[in-house]
Amino acid sequence: MIGGHDAVILAAGGSQRLGRPKQLLTLDGESLIARVSRLVEATGPGKTIAVLGAYAERLCGQLNGAMAVFNPDWATGMASSLRLAADALAGRHDPVLVVVVDQLALDEAHLVRLLAAHDGARDTVTAYGETLGVPAVLRAATLARATHLRGDTGFRALWSDEAPLAIRADALAVDVDTEDDVARAIATGLLDRD
C-alpha cells in the first residue's frame, strides 16, 4: 500500500457502441467496476471518487469503498466527469490517481509503478503505442484545471505547457468498446464468457 494520494474512477459512460454496460462485464466473476475499485483501493488512497452516469444505480453497490458522484451530463463526454471529480476533490492537495474501468490488463503493480514514479514535479501517465493517457497520477493543480474542460476532452488538453512523465504499459491499449472487442477479450481470457 502506497498512500498519500486520492483517486478517481471514471465510470459514467453509456457504452453506446457496446449496447450494454461495459462496467458490468466480468473477469473471474468480478465486474470490471468492482475489479478496478479493488485495484485502486489496494493503493491506499485517502479519498476515492467514482464518477457514475448512465448506469449509476446498477453500479453503486460495487465500488469497494469509493464515494459515488453522479454525473447527470455523462452523455456530453469525459470533460464533465473530470469537472465533477475536480469539484469533489477541491481543496485537497495530494496527487490524484485517475483510472477507467475497461483496460482489461490493468493490475495493481502498474498503479503502484505510476504512484512510485510520481515526484510531484509533473503528471505521471501511462504510455501505450503513441498514446499518453490513463491510468495517470495527476498533480492536484492539474485536476483543478479540469474545470475548464468541455465535451469529450480528457486531461491531455491540460498538458500543453509541460510534458508528463510516461510509464510504458502497451497491454493497456486494449479496451472494450464493441462486441468484437468483447469476443477477442473472451478468447484471450481477459473477460468471462457471458
What's the quick description here?
This protein has 194 residues and is of the alpha/beta class. The protein has helices at 32-41, 56-59, 78-88, 108-117, 140-144, 179-187; strands at 6-11, 26-27, 30-31, 48-52, 67-70, 96-100, 124-128, 131-138, 165-168.
Question: Can you give keywords for this protein?
Answer:
194 residues, alpha/beta, Spore Coat Polysaccharide Biosynthesis Protein SpsA, Chain A, seven-stranded mixed beta sheet, 25% helix
Q: Classify the beta-strand content into a percent band.
A: 15-25%
Can you tell me the CATH architecture?
Answer: Alpha-Beta Complex
| Secondary structure tally, helices | 6
Main-sheet strand order equals 5-4-1-6-8-7-9
Q: How far is it from the N-terminal to the C-terminal residue, by CA?
A: 33 Å
Task: Give the full name of the CATH homologous superfamily.
Answer: Spore Coat Polysaccharide Biosynthesis Protein SpsA, Chain A
CATH fold category name: Spore Coat Polysaccharide Biosynthesis Protein SpsA, Chain A
Which class best fits the helix and strand makeup? Answer: alpha/beta
Radius of gyration: 15 Å
Q: Helical percent range?
A: 25-40%
CATH class: Alpha Beta
Order of helices and strands: EEEHEHEHEHEEHEH
Q: Output mean pLDDT.
A: 88
**How many strands in all?**
9
Residue stretches low in confidence (pLDDT < 50, at least 5 long) are none
The best one-word shape is: globular
Question: How many structural domains in the coordinates?
Answer: 1
